[in-house]
Amino acid sequence: MKLVFVLVMVLAAISPIAAQTASCKVGVVAAPVGFWTWAPESTISVYVVESDFKPAELEYLLAPLSPWNAVSETTGSRVKFEYKGLVSRAQYCENCLTIVRGPVFDKSKRHLTELRTYSAARNRIMTWATIVVDPLLTNPETLTNALVHELGHSFGLLDCYSCKQNSTVMIQFKSVNVSNNMDRPSACDVAQVKLAYETLAQRVTQPTAVLVDEGEEPVDDDTPVVIRKP
Ligand SMILES: [Zn+2]
Question: How far is the CA of 54 from the centre of ligand 1 (A)?
Answer without folding.
Answer: 23
